[in-house]
Write a structure and sequence with these properties.
The chain has helices at 6-9, 20-23, 36-43, 53-57, 64-72, 76-84, 90-96, 100-103, 116-129, 153-164, 181-184, 193-206, 222-228, 257-268, 293-305, 399-403, 431-434, 439-458, and strands at 16-17, 31-32, 145-149, 168-173, 209-212, 231-234, 240-241, 254-256, 285-289, 309-313, 347-349, 352-360, 363-371, 375-381, 384-387, 391-393, 426-428. It is an alpha/beta fold and 466 residues long. A hairpin with a 3-residue loop joins strand 13 (363-371) and strand 14 (375-381). The longest helix has 20 residues, at 439-458. It is globular, with a radius of gyration of 23 Å.
Length: 466
């Protein structure tokens, strides 16, 4: 522990952000880099607890006290080594993770928690800036090959780990570029795609093969995958969105959140999409139904597209701003979350149920809503409605149907504790197996699946279990 009184000397300093008036004009990262000296100061607040609950709360088991201490000692190389030993994508989690660890920080019992996420980001970006993160090609290869279907955080982490074990790994992605939800579901103002490209180039140099624009099960039949590879990991995510089956749902101008965000991200990346197919908020009254992070991302995107107004409605009641008895420390609490997108403007309403959509000439114009538990209807004007209601389960048609894998009661792929499905040599990881969850959980799933696959192929594994 570098400074035993660090948490007494310094207050928490959150990350820095670009001014709202500036950032809503582009899709660049909303945050500003934090000075290295400030990051070191903030790391000194870590108390190196005897029982680090931050470590307990982290799905990938980050060595948080250890790399915070290394940061404070100005030993960035050691801090980076500790960070990368548990996390294949710290530059991603350092930007988009909700920081479950911080809500379990022991200091958070009676003070502000450590800025763990910002410290993590500072460490990995120091590594890239100073040439500490380089490709490390595998020197010894096995004769085993693995197909990873899906290139989201679970698939990428699984592939990276299996490649380190010496296996020949091919990642299949049906979209034009690898990254899955990281590339197409998260806006650039939260995660610029150069961050992904930088990491994937390293993995390519290390031997991972990426095949994009390939829809396994359609372009690449299931039986061919099974015959050509010694193991298969299904990591295609949870892609069936939850719908709102009410009157007027067939009106034009109502879209799923991923449909909206994916097109926006492609346009930002320079994709040529015919204007008549644009889902664009410019000059429109936008209503986002759903109060989660995806809904927040839609709000930020609508601001940047020049919406006339933006409203977000949520069926659940307004969360508390402080912990309640239902969520004592160190549990992750259900608290009111105000994101950078919310701070850019817009109206938020809770305990609102949408009863029907009202249209004119085939296009949505209003929502008829009611207050939950109160009754009494009211209308909200809308030219564009975005449904951000979460996801049900993975797509069953196509590959999963052809493989004949079993599903659980929620419609996710059923596996044993070893991530093996009902079909021999076919494994599953991430949202396909777990259900819709966080990026950090997807990384954990991918790493654990890699360990099980390596053990399946070789009889034992020297990869970390988590």
């Amino acid at each position: 522990m570098g400074d035993v009184r660090g948490f007494l000397k310094l207050a928490r300093q959150d990350g820095l952000y670009r001014p709202v008036a500036e950032r809503v004009k582009d899709y660049k990262d909303v945050s500003s880099p934090r000075p290295e000296e400030q990051s070191r100061d903030q790391s000194s607040r870590c108390m190196s607890c005897g029982t680090p609950f931050c470590h307990w709360a982290c799905p990938i088991g980050n060595y948080i006290p250890e790399w915070n201490d290394a940061m404070f000692q100005n030993n960035w190389r050691e801090a980076l080594g500790l960070l990368e030993s548990t996390n294949n994508l710290p530059e991603v989690t350092g930007r988009v993770c909700p920081a479950l660890c911080e809500y379990s920080c022991v200091l958070g019992i009676n003070d502000d928690a450590i800025t763990i996420r910002e410290n993590e980001l500072a460490t990995v970006e120091f590594g890239f800036k100073n040439g500490l993160i380089k490709a490390k090609p595998v020197s010894v290869r096995t004769d085993k090959s693995v197909a990873v279907v899906g290139s989201g955080p679970a698939g990428l982490s699984c592939a990276a780990q299996l490649n380190r074990a010496g296996h020949h790994v091919v990642v299949f992605e049906r979209d034009d570029a690898a990254g899955g939800i990281l590339r197409y579901g998260i806006p650039d103002f939260k995660l610029e795609k150069s961050v992904l490209d930088r990491r994937m180039e390293i993995w390519r140099e290390e031997g991972v093969v990426f095949k994009t624009g390939v829809n396994v099960g359609l372009d690449y039949p299931a039986d061919k995958v099974l015959s050509e590879f010694d193991a298969v990991c299904l990591a295609g995510g949870s892609r069936i969105p939850r719908d709102l089956d009410i009157e007027g749902r067939d009106l034009k101008g109502i879209h799923f959140a991923m449909e909206y965000l994916t097109q926006s991200n492609k346009r930002v990346a320079g994709a040529k999409i015919p204007p008549e197919e644009w889902i664009d908020a410019r000059g429109k009254k936008v209503v986002v139904i759903g109060g989660g992070d995806t809904g927040s991302d839609c709000i930020g995107t609508a601001h940047r597209q020049g919406a006339q107004s933006v409203s977000q409605i949520e069926i659940l009641p307004r969360p508390s701003e402080l912990r309640t008895a239902d969520y004592p420390w160190p549990k992750y609490p259900m608290l009111l979350k105000t994101t950078t997108s919310h701070k850019e403007g817009g109206d938020r309403q809770w305990a609102v149920m949408t009863k029907r959509f009202i249209g004119e000439k085939g296009r949505v114009k209003k929502l008829y809503c009611e207050r939950v538990g109160e009754g009494g209807g009211f209308e909200i004007e809308a030219d564009l409605v975005i449904l951000a209601l979460g996801f049900l389960h993975p797509e069953h048609a196509g590959l999963l149907h052809d493989l004949r894998v079993e599903f659980d009661e929620r419609g996710n792929i059923k596996t044993g504790a070893n991530f093996l499905t009902s079909v021999d040599k076919v494994f599953a990881a991430g949202d396909m197996r777990r259900g819709q969850s966080l990026v950090v959980w997807a990384i954990s799933e991918g790493r654990r699946a890699a360990y099980c696959i390596d053990q399946y192929l070789m009889g034992e594994s020297h990869l970390p279990v988590i």
